[in-house]
């Protein structure tokens, strides 16, 4: 079974016979067959069309008589024959497939609500004794059908065993699907209407009792590719979960898959896609987030199949930045990144309903599709944003020139997001800056003055945190902010000493620094959050790498940090002072400031 949807025609009501009796509400219709009808004889098409006038008892999943009619037609034509049956037992659609599959029709944009099923069950034939296959179960999950039934057709054209399955709430069934015991159609004697009522009640109860205190709910998906599964996959998935939490989302579930190469249509494999559909149905999520960047085609296909919002990691990061931007600079930079991300996705969208304006005889002209109009508007907006940011960049450069005339050294605090950069700035300068245990809590740069011994002053600047695979559009948009680091005399590279993937995080930061031309700027490694490690372990780590170990939250190791920074910034003066044997130690000056 394939969920490739095709069109279907509406029913037509037949006039009631003039018998003096009032016709009931049941509609007798001539339903157009959908699917592969080429090559069928006229009488075969007529008999298949008559299936549309059949009605099953609402409490029966399938009957022997109906299954026999399907199997006889299937054996005669050598094709799978199927129908969709609504809750009243009326046949609403008739389909013809080939020998191995069948295509479901399009019943419009009718949606099943939270905790509810579609209200249609599919009954179709399998040539030979074949159980429900992966396509059948995928359609059951994707379309949220009431049930999927496959009737085996023997060599005589008689119905054999019927295989049936329904979706199941969490804790029931096999991977979210409940299979019935295969049996002849006549022996399916359960009250299917009552079964559906109980099933939807359980789904609704599950939905009502679900914890939604964390806001919108999301399923996270990570698809790695290559010959071998990357060793840091767990850390990457944990980071994606932290990004989701920082965006105000509640993580309902995680799905991982390793493939030799990504699927061009969905990124994820068909089996995992089926699992994803079922888990999304069971957990009642609002969106699905992929750790890897999606192509426009993949994003569109996934959205159509899941009937949910689907975003990738880049969109999630852009959303976090949009939430956190507070200054005019920050808001403009975030919007610029969003527009740059949006533009190529507009360019690859296709909508056949958007025809060229003014086409046809007597109306020819240049015209413009809606897609072209949208692209032009986005480009115009990008141009305006770039001009505004260029103006702000000039103002910032002027402030830096004035600051440079005073000959005040600059310390820029850089590092992976949530490494404790803002906490370190607050510990060093008593700055009233926001501190949160979230990724990208700091978006706009903050500068404060710090006094060293012998009346030496420096400016300490806290900047936006970095992250692995930082979106290039975001780096380009934040050039104005990142320029603050270009005048730095020393970079304080803050590292979370307790991070399991410490090396990868350091490499990600240095990669971004290299991209913006700061690879030659002196760097001092600051291993923060040393209090999370066993005593002495952070100090050993720092000594092996030529850095210092601190706990910005516990305010330990800050004196050693200042001495190391002073030795780099004021190397000549410090050396001369040491020869004369005078001057107050850096730690004393730090204590004298009330730190």
Describe the protein's architecture and organization.
With 595 residues, the chain is an alpha/beta fold. The protein has three domains: 2-208, no CATH class; 217-321, Rossmann fold, CATH 3.40.50; 408-592, Rossmann fold (3-Layer(aba) Sandwich), CATH 3.40.50.300. 38% of the residues lie in helices and 19% in strands. The chain has 18 helices and 19 strands. The strands form four sheets. It has a seven-stranded mixed β-sheet with strand order 2-4-3-6-7-8-9. It has a six-stranded mixed β-sheet with strand order 15-16-14-17-18-19, sandwiched between helices. Helix 5 packs parallel to helix 8 (313-324). Residues 2-29, 348-367 and 572-595 have low confidence and may be disordered.
How is this structure best summarized?
By secondary structure, the protein is of the alpha/beta class. Helices cover about 40% and strands about 20% of the residues.
Compute the number of structural domains. 3
- Give the N-terminus to C-terminus distance in angstroms: 70 Å
Q: pLDDT below 50 for ≥5 consecutive residues: which ranges?
A: 2-29, 348-367, 572-595
Q: How much strand?
A: 15-25%
Q: What's the alpha carbon Rg, rounded to whole Å?
A: 33 Å
For the largest beta sheet, what order do the strands appear in spatially?
A: 2-4-3-6-7-8-9
Rough outline: elongated
Q: In this structure, how is the largest beta sheet organized?
A: 7 strands, mixed
Please bin the fraction of helical residues.
25-40%
